[in-house]
Amino acid sequence: MGRYLLRRLLQLVPVFIGTTFLIYWLVWSVPGDPFAGKCGDRGCPPNYRAMMTEKYHLDDSIWVQYASYMKNLFQGDFGITFGGREISDIIATSYPNTLKLAVVALAIEAIIGLGAGVLTGLRRNGFLDNLVLISTLFLIALPVFVIGFVLQWLLGVKWGIITPTVSNEMRFSELIVPGFVLGSASMAYIARVARTSIAENRRADFVRTAIAKGLPMRRVVGVHLLRNSLIPVVTLLGTDLGALMGGAIITEGIFGINGIGRQVLRAIVTKESATVVGIVVVLVLVYLVMNLLVDLLYAALDPRIRYE
Amino acid sequence: MSDPSTASIVSTPPATMPTEAGSGAPTNAGLPENAKKQKPRGLLGDAWRDLRRKPLFWISATFILLFVVMAAFPSLFTSGDAVNGALGRSRVEPSSSAWFGYDVQGRDVYARVIYGARASIVVALLSTILTLLFGGAMGIIAGYRGGWVDAVLSRIADIFFGLPFVLGAIVILTTFNGSGTDNGEWTIMGLVILSLTVLSWPVVMRLMRSSVLATKEADYIVAARALGAGTGRIILKHLLPNCLAPLLVYGTIMVGSFIGAEATLSFLGIGLKSPVVSWGIMISEAQNYIRVSPFLLFFPSAFLVIAVLSFVMLGEAVREALDPKLR
Amino acid sequence: MSEQSAPGADGSGRPSGRLLEVDGLRVEFRTRDGVAKVINGVTYHVDAGETLAVLGESGSGKSVTAQTIMGILDTPPGFVTAGQVRFHGKDMLKMSPEQRRRIRGEGIAMIFQDSLSALNPVFTVGFQIAEQFRIRRGMSRSDAKKRAIEMLDQVKIPNAKGRYSNYPHQFSGGMRQRAMIAMSLALDPEVLIADEPTTALDVTVQAQIMDLLGELQRERQMGMILITHDLGVVADVADRIAVMYAGRIVEEADVYDLYAKPAHPYTLGLLNSIPRMDEKGQELRTIKGLPPNLMNIPPGCAFNPRCPMAQPVCREKVPPLLQLGRGRASACHFAEELVNRD
Q1: Residue C60 carries which DSSP code?
Q2: CB B215 within 8 A of CB B84
C-alpha cells in the first residue's frame, strides 16, 4: 500500500506541472504583451512596468517565469494583481463560498441521486423507474445554464419561492437551488450508476445466500446489497467534488455567488493573469488530491483490490 | 441511414454479397446494411433488430434528421431574415405573423432559431469527428504499443483531463479569441471546435485504450499475429471493428453534449459571436430580459434542449441495443 | 396432481409426519421467448437423519426445486403453478414471508455450489457467520464471534481464530466451501440442502468435503438433500436417490437397488456412461441426444426421443411414477421388465 501511494504521488507530479504550466503559458505568454489593456488607454507607467516585470520575471523565458512562480507559490505567495491586491486574499475570500456550494451540491446529488438509484434498482421497469430514467436523461442532456435559468425564472421570478440570487451570507437555504443546478448532471449519473449496480447485484449469489440465511429483508438490502453496490457510487461522488468546484463558474454567475468561478471569470476578462493561474492551480490540486483519495477509498471499500 | 432498401437501389443485394464480404471494409458502413447482408446475424444485426422496436430510437432519429435538414437548408423552414431586424418591433410577443415573436433588435426569433441550428450542429459534428479521430488514434497507439509510449501518452491525457472543462475552454478561448481580437466567423468556429477537441480527447483515448488492451491479447489477434499479419492490418481488420461499438455510442452522445457546450461558451460570450446566429448567442442575449420577455429565452432553449436530448437519447438507445446484458 | 406420488406420501396433501416433503410441485419460467416448464410435478421427501440424493443433468430442475424449497426462486421469471412444499406437515408456499424467513437457516439451510460468488466479497467470512448469531439469536458481538470461531473449528478449518477475519477471496476453494458449510450449519438446521457442493472443487478436495458433510449429517441427525449430477459422489453418502429428468422424478430407490437394478432406462444410461477400469480401451457409452427443450417437451415420456427401449406408447402416454415395492418407484412404462431382467 505504501509503495502504491508513493507511486501514485509521483505520477501526480508531472500531471500537476503539466496542467499548471499549460495554463501559465496560455495566460501569460500567448497574448503577447502582458501589459496590453491593463492600465487604460495611455498604457502603464514605466516604473510600474519595471516593478511588475521584476516581480513576475517577465523578461526571462517562460520556463524561468514558471519556475519562480511555482517556487513562490509553495511558499504561500500567490503574487499580487496588477491593482496591487494579494491574490491569496482573493482566493481566501472566494474559495470557501465555492467549497460551500460544491458541498451542498454534493450532498444533494448524493441524497437524491442515491435515493432514486436505489429505489429504481430494486424495482425495475415500474412507473418510478421510467420517471427516473427520463428525468435523468433530461438532467444529463441539459446544459447547466439552461437548468439554472429555468429554475431561477420559475422558482425565483415567477413563483417567488426563492430569492433569485444568493446573498453574501450564503445561507444554506439559499444554496439549495444553486446546489441542485450545479450537481444536476452528476446527480443523474449517480442515480444511473446506483440503479445499474443495485439491479446487477440484486440477482447476485451472495444476496441469495443472505436471504437463505434467513436474514430480514431490511438487512439483506441494507447491508449485503447496498454495501456492494455503493462502491462505484462512492468513487463517483469522490471524484465529483473536484469537478464541481471547477464547474461552478456558470452556476455562480447565474445566482450571483462570489466564488472562485466568478473571480476567475472576472480575472480573465480584466486580464489578471496571475489570478487566473493561482485559482487554476488550487482547483487542479483539489481535483488531483480527490482522485488520489478516491483510489485509496476504493481499496478500503473493496477488499479484493490489492495494489502493488 | 434510415432504410435498408437504400442498399438495393445501387445493386441487387445477393449478387454483391461475395465481393462485399471479401473487401474487408470496416463494418462502420451503417447498421441497416449489415443487418440485411450478414447471414449469421452478428452483434450489429441483433442490435439493429432491437433498435427497430424502440420508439425512442425513431423519435430521436426523426428529430436528428430534422435538425440536419434545418442546418443544411434553413430556407426550407423559413423565409424570414435571421440577421437584420427592425427596432420598431423590438420584443414583440409571438403572434400568427411571427410565431416566436421578435427579439430586442426586432429580429424574427423563429428565423433565428432555424438558422441557429447550422452553427450548433456544424460545431458539434466537427468537434466530435476530430475528437474521435485524435483521441481514437492516441488510444490505439497507447494501447497497442504499451510501455513508455503508453505511459507518456496517458500522462499527457491526464494533464488535459485535469483541466476543468468550462474553465479550460474559457482560458483557451479568451487567449485566442479575447475581446481585443477580431477573428472572422470561420476562425472563431475553428477555435471553438479546437478547444472542445483539446479538452475532450482524453476520454476517447481512455475508452479506446482499454478497448484495445482488452482485445489485444485475445486469441484470434494472437493467432493473426502468429500468421504474420502486420501491425497496420491487425489494427484495421481486427482491433478497430471490435472497439467500434463503444466509440459509436460515445460519439453519438458526444454530439449532444457538444451542442450544449457550444451554447454554453457562446452564452459566456467567448464562443461564437454575433452576427453569427446560434442558440447559445440567442440565450445569452435573452438573459437580461428574462423578467419581461421570457419567450426570448424559451424558444432557443427549447430547440437546444430537443437537439441535445435527441442525440443523447439516440446514443442511449444504441448503447442498450449493443449491450446484451441489458436486454 | 395426477402423477402418483413417491413412497410414503399419500398424495392427498394432508400431513404425514414427514420432516420435509415436496408434493406435486410445478414451476415454470416465463421469459420473453416463451414459457419453460422447468418442474413438472416433482414429489420427494426427506426425513431426519437420512440423506436423499437428487441426481440429474443440468436443466433437469433439481436446483430449481431446491430454490423453491428455500423460497429463493427468482420471481419473475420463475412461478410456482401447483404443488406443495411441506415442512413438518405445513405448506410453506402458503406461509407469510416472515414465517418462511424464520424457517430459513434454522429449519432448512442451504449450501451453494460456487462458494466464491455465494459469499459476500466485501465482508469477512467470520462476519458472515457471526451475523446469523447476532441477528437471529440476538447475541452480542463478542459471543457471536466466539460461536462463529467454534463453527469454523467444527468444519476443520485450521487456525479458525485467525481465519475469522479473512475475506472469502483469501480462502482456497476447499476451505471456502468448508466456511460455507459452517455458515449453513450455524443455526443448527433440521434439513440441509447441498446444491452441488463439490462441483467447483478439485477431485481430491471433493472427497474431503463429502466426507465432512456426511460426518456432520450423521452427528447432527439432519435430513440432507444432496443435489448432484455426479453418480460417483452419491454412492458413499446417500441413503436414497431420486433421479430427475426434464423436471420430473423418473426413478427413486435405495442406493443399493438403484446401482444393482435401475428401473428406468435413463438411470441405466447414466450408470453405463460412468467410465470403468475393467472396460479400458472400449468406447465410452453415452446417452445419445440432448435433454429436451423445456419450452417444448415432447409428448408422452419426455425421455422417449433418447430412449433405446422406446415403444409407440412412450410417445403417447406420460408414464406415472409407480411403486415397485421395497420403497422404490419408477416412471417408465416398462419398469417391471427392466427390474425383472436376467
Answers
A1: S
A2: no
φ/ψ region of B26 (left if φ > 0, alpha if ψ in -120 to 50, else beta) reads beta
Q: Which domains does chain B have, with CATH numbers?
A: 57-80+99-326 (1.10.3720.10)
Peptide bond into B300 cis (omega under 30): no
Half-sphere exposure in the Cβ direction for C103 (13 Å, CA): 23
Q: What is the spatial distance between Cα C173 and Cα A34, in angstroms, rounded to a whole number?
A: 68
Q: What is the mean pLDDT of residues B50-72?
A: 84
Q: What are phi and psi of A90, to 5 degrees?
A: -60, -45
DSSP letters spanning C76-129: TTEEEEEEEEEETTEEGGGS-HHHHHHHBTTTEEEE-S-HHHHS-TTS-HHHHH
Which cell goes with A236? 463517483
- Counting residues of chain A whose pLDDT is more than 70, the rounded percentage is 94
Residue where the block lists cell 473493496: A302
Nearest Cα of chain C lies from the Cα of A228 at a distance, in angstroms, of 7
- C97 vs C149: CA distance, rounded Å: 31
Contacts of A303 in chain C (CB under 8 A): 121-122, 167, 169
Residue with grid cell 494501447, as numbered in its chain: B143
Domain extent listing, chain A: 2-87, 94-306
Domains of chain C: 20-107+187-340 (3.40.50.300), 119-186 (no CATH)
Residue B134 has pLDDT above 90, yes or no: yes
CA atoms within 13 Å, Cβ hemisphere of C59: 9
Among A80, A76, A75, CA closest to A56: A80
CB neighbour list of residue B269: distance below 8 Å, 6 or more residues apart: B284
CA A278 from chain centre, in angstroms, equals 16
Q: Which CATH superfamily is domain A94-306 in?
A: MetI-like (1.10.3720.10)
- Tell me which residues of chain A, numbers 190 to 219, contact chain C at a CB-CB cutoff of 8 Å: 203-206, 208-217, 219
To the nearest whole angstrom, how far is the Cα of C197 from the nearest Cα of chain A?
A: 14
The pLDDT assigned to B11 comes to 30
Under a CB-based contact definition with an 8 Å cutoff, are residues B4 and B35 in contact? yes
Contact C85, C91 (CB under 8 A): yes
CB burial of residue B171 (10 Å; 0-12, 13-18, 19+): buried
Angle CA A273–A276–A281, to nearest 5: 125
Phi, psi angle pair for C97, to nearest 5°: -55, -35
Q: Tell me, what's the ipTM?
A: 0.84
Picking from A13, A133, A146, A155 by the largest number of B CB atoms within 10 A of its own CB, the best residue to mutate is A146
Q: What is the pTM of this model?
A: 0.79
Q: How far is A118 from chain C (nearest CA, A)?
A: 19
* Residue whose cell numbers read 451540491: A105
Q: For residue C242, list its beta bridge partners.
A: C54, C252
User: Residue B301 and residue A140: Cβ atoms within 8 Å?
Assistant: no
State phi, psi for A36 to the nearest 5 degrees.
-60, 125
Predicted local confidence at residue B126, as pLDDT: 93
Mutation to test the B interface, candidates A7, A158, A200, A268, most B Cβ within 10 Å: A268
- Candidates A209, A217, A302; nearest CB to C118: A209
Cα C194 to chain center, whole Å? 6
Residue type, C198: T
Contact by Cβ (8 Å): A55, A81: no
Neighbours of B11 (CB within 10 A): 11
Distance from CA of C101 to the nearest CA of A (A): 5
Q: Which three cell numbers stand for residue B287?
A: 438573459
Cβ contacts of A19 on chain B, cutoff 8 Å: 159-160, 162-163
Write the CA distances from A167 to A96, A170, A252, B290, integer angstroms.
14, 6, 12, 20
CA distance C66 to C64: 5
pLDDT, position C10 = 43
